[in-house]
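Final report, Chapter 2: Outcomes

The project's central promise was a pipeline that accepts a single protein chain and returns its three-dimensional structure in a standardized token representation, suitable for archiving and comparison. That pipeline is now operational. To close this chapter, we reproduce one record exactly as it appears in the project archive, with the input sequence first and the structure output second.
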Amino acid sequence: MNPRTLDQPLRVLRVCLHLLVAGLLALAAGRAVTAGLPHRGAIVATTVVLAAVYAAGPATPRVARSVTAAGAWLAALAAVWLVLLGLTPDGVWLAFPLFFLQLHLLPLRWGLPAVAATTLAAIGAFAWHQGVLTPAIVIGPALGAAVAVGTALGYQALYRESEHRRGLIEQLTAARSELAAAEHAAGVLAERERLAREIHDTLAQGLSSIQLLLRAAERALPARPDTAAGHVRQARMAAADNLAEARRFVHALTPPGLADGSLPSALDRLCTTTAQRSGLPVHFHLSGTPAALSTAQEVAVLRIAQSALANTVQHARAGRVEVTLSYMDDRVALDVVDDGVGFDPDAVHASGAGGRFGLAAMRARARSLQGTLSVESAPGQGTALAASFAIPPAEETASP
């Protein structure tokens, strides 16, 4: 429960308490006049003074904020009440609202003794007026005090519980805000990593290919203009492909290689294009019956193949490359094998300069789809890269 929900009932109780005090003072003054009690003038005057002292409390803001001010006000109120109590036994009824005021405004260690003193004063004065001390005279004020104490303690317990819950709610709200911020940061990092992989596997590799083709054209000029023109034409085609990839990034579209065909045909075209642009024999093989994959898996397989072939062209100095796409019962596997110079996989860091980001990006891409990626190589013995993904159930293949 929010502590604010207790404010409205508390205000209502305060109004009721004010009305109760006013009613009891009016009753005491009225009975003194109508019953013709002795000292009726003094009784009426005392009720007026008591009403004025009581009204001064709610009108003074310090009474609600300061224990000292509240104690002084209650002491003045009790003093006038004792005068009224000495003049008329009807003053005993004002003990009940005094109980609530003492318990509400004073700390419990002071409020309880004040209630006890008020109870004894009410019992003693009433017994003095009656001339006899009976169980009823004791039980009435004592029962009123017990009810007041029980009500005050119950309210305080409810308020403490409410404060505790408010603290928990604030902690939960803060934790939720921190969690949302952490999730946002994680999402930003994941998206940044995804874009880094996409750019590395497409635009960066394409620009590298264009650079190689233009260098080849530069070397062919001016002796072999036809050869140079062929290299420039291939560089222009590579630039067009990279432009299509850049537009896909902007519009979040499927890779151009997959937009108009299946994954096997996209890999076949990739091998053919790589062979034409690099002069390196690249052969594609299909094993098994093609099965439907999710779009994310097809993109991952194509990107891993692009990155692997780009690494082979740039670093392997290979004589041939074999790319194999294998559909098995529950998995699809991509194998890229070359006969190049090879390298030590353990010596290659997860990221860094010199093109080493490629392997890290391929591993991250496979891991994001619960796939596996392994690299087997050694200096002078070529390189074999294998990526594998589980074939999803038919109803899940439409998921991006």
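Archive annotation: Residues 217 and 228 are 4 Å apart (CA to CA).
This record, like all others produced under the grant, will remain available to the consortium after the project formally closes.
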